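Q: Here's a chain of 590 amino acids. Please give me its 3D structure as tokens.
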Amino acid sequence: MKKLFAALALPLIALAIAFTAPVSAQSSRDAVWVQIAARQSLREAETEARTFAARLPDVSGYALGGGWYGVVLGPYARDDAERVLQVYRAEGQIPRDSFIAFRRNLRNQFYPVAADASAPAQPAPAPASAALAAEDPAPQQEAALQSNLPDETPAEARRSESALSREQRMQLQVALKAAGFYNSGIDGAFGRGTRGSMSDWQAARGFEPTGVLTTAQRQVLMDEYNAPLISVGMARVEDAKAGIALQIPADEVAFDRYESPFAHYAAKGDLAAEVLLISQPGDKRTLFGLYDILQTLEIVPLEGPRQRGKDSFTIEGRNSKIVSFTQASLKNGELKGFTLIWPAGDEDRRTRVLAAMQASFTRLDGVLDPAAGGDEVQNIDLVSGLEIRKPKLSRSGFFVDSGGSVLTTSDVVAGCTRITLDHGYQAEVAANNTADGIAILRPAEALAPAAVAELSTASPRLQSEVAVSGFSYEGVLGAPSLTWGKVADVKSLDGNTGVSRLELTAQPGDAGGPVLDSTGAVLGMLLPRQIEGKQLPEDVSFAVKAEAIRGALNNAGLSPAAQSASAGSLPNAALTRLASGMTVLVSCWE
């Protein structure tokens, strides 16, 4: 495999590319190519390969199977291939529907005649003529193929063109547009713009530029356009149990299992694509519930458009690794749809595959049995076999005003791309006092807390009983719990009088939670157990005092509620309800 080292620039100028010598055999096994053309005639593929090779480096040709022959660039490392694809597309050097191809897509090499050392590993060596004979039709077969696509005169081409339906004419315009030769509306009318684009395409492909495509040329154009679909083996499947039929990339995914409400079609190729068929009985609540659940899963990245209507929804999610698209709709008490998961960086091919799946999606009778997959291994971190998205870090916090502002610990907001309250509500950092370890969060939309912290106006008393309300296990239990302890000292180990030392065994998830006295007043906020270079006993914890919290809130323009007159200590049940109402899970997401 050759390794690209010259920087590739996007300006539309001549591109100079330099490559290193072949790298190790291990790296060679990870090689990829850029497929730029596919033909059903070996002669046409050889001609096209020579045409591209006259202006581009690293052109080669391989049989693709099924009577197809591909023209490719490479081999490259994956990152280099994506860069080559980007630059050559931008300069118009290769068709816009070119895509990344893998070793398994390529068979015997037909161009150049002598295969280089980095070509894909082949079965036992065979003479070139014998190898080609296995893939290439015999001359008589090729002649028969050509007879099915005759070389027409312009008049004959016009007559055959006149027999095309409006949809077929529109498909030709779509293909010309995808190849970069047409930029007008898709209307099926072959006016001056369409004729000009046909002429330009013919000239670029070595045909006489008549502006009227022959039957054979129309086939070549559509074969070019459909090369991305051919490369992934698009084929119709009928899943009787799910009650769904559609086209799927059958060379890249295969049926794996049923786990209601999904039929899982797992990756079987290098592309790492996946397909889920969605099928279950239900109503609008089922539809809306699935919409919410899907967005908690790793396969649905957070970035991307999504839309929910009264009886359908679509969700697109993108990150640096994958792009996923889900559509589902409710009809006659049956919820059906699909999810396509595709690697990032292969957008043109993904778009074509998705369009083919959408156009072919058909509802059949019946839905997937809701009990399907019930005997699969259960895991709290999985939903129907799909991994739930997890935050980088979760800690506790508590409401400090009626609008839903939250006080928490500084460490939970460090290095986050997104912060949520109770997983569902977006929040932003309004203030962060790292010296005291206090962060103040403002929800993106106003919330209505069940309870708001009332800050104590008294100093904590030594040996007085306190309770910390927090999500000890970072939300696994679903609700906060109380951990009881005592005030061991009114200052920290280093003498800081703004911090109390507690005799209390806390968990990491408790940090940021309120420290309450027996009346329900907030004495402070639990700090993380981190003293550099020291190993503390398990029952040693620290809390920033209410006075420091009050100052941080005032500086942020918030007015904390003062401790109200109390008749005395609250019963444990009442204290638990109060603490639960004010405590919130704070999560940091990458």
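Q: Can you summarize the key feature?
A: The two ends are 35 Å apart (CA to CA).
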